[in-house]
């Protein structure tokens, strides 16, 4: 409709302008435009403003499209298909998107714990954990017993990536203590099972290694179950542990044990033993 209005210059105006001087055409023509032309120009201006707004909106959408695809809280935009069809030839926008994504990744790559305190994180997750509210898509009513091996294979990202894979700003590091604490139970000190958090097995392995290293470095506390120790376990007063005291009744000629003097050895067996060890006996 806009094109038809734009392509309807009245014939009378051309005839009138041919009579006028050429210098007047270079000046502002608005006072000389007839009523119909004013309407056409007005509609044209509106169409230009509308198209400019559409272009800027599509640019903003393309700019954050990579993040929107991987994060959960974003609602699907029905205009995306229309915008990509109308303004699909936006190669420079994609290049800027890649540059912008690379800059944000580099920004948190060195100090990944800064993202946990940023406004961007608070706006996205609030005060809840990263994995809160995540639900994996699966067939049937029973969820799978294991999480998937990995969410990203080369350039391919699965449709519903895990809470760590879906946000490129979340980087597992042993110094990223606030992130690691979200995967540790505050009551038992145990690392949450991946079936609860939904983290894929590849990221869970990194997570366990980071938690172990953080505990080794003293960044995370060890939580050991409480046991009431009894003093008997560490005393040396037990008969099997303590020193044997000498018997007070022991005289100089008495044997150590009473039964030792009461034994009368068999002469036949003593003779056999003496015969065997004859070469080693002095007498
Ligand atoms: Zn994953």
From TrEMBL:
Where is the protein situated, by its record's location annotation? Answer: Mitochondrion
Q: From what superkingdom does this record's organism come?
A: Eukaryota
Q: What is this protein called?
A: Small ribosomal subunit protein mS40
Family the UniProt entry places it in: Belongs to the bacterial ribosomal protein bS18 family. Mitochondrion-specific ribosomal protein mS40 subfamily.
Matching Gene3D superfamilies: Ribosomal protein S18
Q: Which InterPro entries match?
A: MRPS18B (IPR040054), Ribosomal_bS18 (IPR001648), Ribosomal_bS18_sf (IPR036870)
**Its principal location?**
mitochondrion
What is the source species? Poecilia mexicana
Per its UniProt record, what PANTHER family does this chain match?
MITOCHONDRIAL RIBOSOMAL PROTEIN S18B, SMALL RIBOSOMAL SUBUNIT PROTEIN MS40
Report any one BP term from Gene Ontology: mitochondrial translation
- Give the keywords, sorted: Mitochondrion, Phosphoprotein, Ribonucleoprotein, Ribosomal protein, Transit peptide
Which SUPFAM superfamilies did the record assign? Ribosomal protein S18
């Amino acid at each position: 409709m806009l094109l038809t209005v734009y392509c309807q210059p009245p014939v009378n105006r051309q005839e009138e302008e041919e009579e006028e001087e050429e210098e007047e055409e270079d000046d502002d023509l608005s006072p000389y435009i007839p009523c119909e032309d004013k309407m056409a120009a007005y509609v044209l201006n509106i169409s230009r403003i509308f198209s400019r707004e559409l272009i800027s909106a599509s640019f903003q959408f393309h700019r954050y499209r990579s993040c929107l695809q991987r994060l959960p809280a974003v609602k699907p935009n029905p205009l995306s298909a229309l915008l990509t069809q109308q303004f699909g030839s936006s190669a420079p926008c994609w290049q800027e998107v890649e540059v912008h994504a690379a800059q944000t990744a580099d920004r948190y790559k060195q100090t990944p714990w800064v993202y946990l305190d940023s406004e961007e994180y608070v706006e996205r997750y609030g005060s809840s954990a990263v994995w809160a509210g995540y639900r994996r898509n699966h067939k049937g009513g029973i969820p799978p017993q294991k999480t998937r091996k990995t969410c990203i294979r080369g350039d391919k990202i699965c449709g519903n990536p895990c809470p760590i894979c879906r946000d490129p700003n979340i980087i597992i590091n042993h110094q990223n203590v606030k992130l690691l604490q979200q995967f540790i139970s505050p009551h038992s000190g145990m690392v949450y099972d991946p079936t609860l958090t939904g983290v894929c097995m590849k990221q869970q392995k990194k997570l366990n290694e980071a938690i172990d290293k953080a505990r080794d470095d003293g960044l995370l506390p060890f939580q050991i179950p409480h046991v009431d120790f009894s003093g008997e376990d560490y005393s040396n007063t037990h008969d099997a542990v303590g020193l044997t005291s000498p018997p007070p009744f022991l005289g100089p000629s008495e044997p150590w044990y009473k039964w030792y003097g009461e034994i009368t050895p068999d002469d036949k067996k003593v003779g056999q033993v003496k015969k065997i060890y004859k070469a080693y006996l002095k007498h």
